[in-house]
Amino acid sequence: MELTTTLRVLVTLGIVLILVMLRVDAERFGAAEYDEARRDGHWPSLGRRLAWYALGFGLVIAAAFVYPREATHDLYLGLGDRAGSLIGGLLFAGIGTAQAVGFAVYRYHHVRLPDPRAYPGALLNAVATSFIDEAAFRGILLAFLVGAGLPPLVAITGQALAYALATRLGAPGRDRYMLGLVLFVGFASGLLTVTVGGIGGAFLGHAVTRCAVFLATGHAGQVAPRGREKEDIERKRRTPEGWNAVGARDSNSGDR
């Protein structure tokens, strides 16, 4: 490769590393899995969330612009094979939706619909996060790993682990369901991306899965551990059934 081409490849590599750092810092911006009300009841700043989305989109566009066409391996930022992307994306979306509903029924015994006021911001967050994640980890990072000569399965596994670490969903106190979900998303998206040659289908499946998790659990990604949801805490504080009746009966007996 010529010197100019090598420099442009290195600049693109630097951009994807910044994208990974931005993903690690999503909690500070209140974006991605952290687009939820804090313990004090306040929601993350809209300005910070929009800044995170803008930075992510801007860096992806910059990477696509800087990366040289004459490089030995293309990035996966395109749609890929259209038919394969559509079929694979719909299959991915179906599995993602089914697991979200299944988890909600298993954990809550019903689909836990979120507050209607949260829908616009949460759905925007799901779509924007899915695009940034797919472009950064599958579109660019995975392309670099495959281009470096790693076997596709090794490259897919490597970027899936890097993705899971960047989301920080394996930290103590976090529900293991979300960690398992991001590992599944990372691996399935990587496999689909390499198969069709682009992130079109992976983006579709990822976005639908995130939306399904939100609609089924009421969370963008911070699913509370068992017994720590608001309704679980309120249920524990509530007077056990029958106690009020006994108290009322004793009071009536005293009045007589």
Which class do the helix and strand fractions yield?
Answer: mainly alpha
Provide the domain count. 1
Query: Which term fits the overall shape?
Result: globular
Secondary structure tally: strands: 0
Percent strand: under 5%
Mean model confidence by pLDDT: 87
Distance between the termini: 99 Å
- What series of H and E elements makes up the topology? HHHHHHHHHH
Could you estimate the helical fraction of the residues in percent? 55-70%
Q: What count of helical segments does DSSP give?
A: 10
Q: What can be said about the biggest beta sheet? A: none
Our Rg estimate from Cα atoms comes to: 23 Å
Q: Uncertain regions: pLDDT < 50 for 5+ in a row?
A: none
Descriptive keywords:
mainly alpha
Structure description:
The protein has 256 residues and is mainly α. It starts with a helix and ends with a helix. The radius of gyration is 23 Å and the shape is globular. The chain has one domain. It has ten helices and no strands.
Set out the fold topology:
Elements: H1 3-24, H2 26-29, H3 46-66, H4 82-108, H5 119-147, H6 152-167, H7 176-196, H8 200-217, H9 230-237, H10 243-255
Helix pairs in contact: 1-3, 1-5, 1-6, 3-5, 4-7, 4-8, 5-6, 5-7, 5-8, 6-7, 7-8
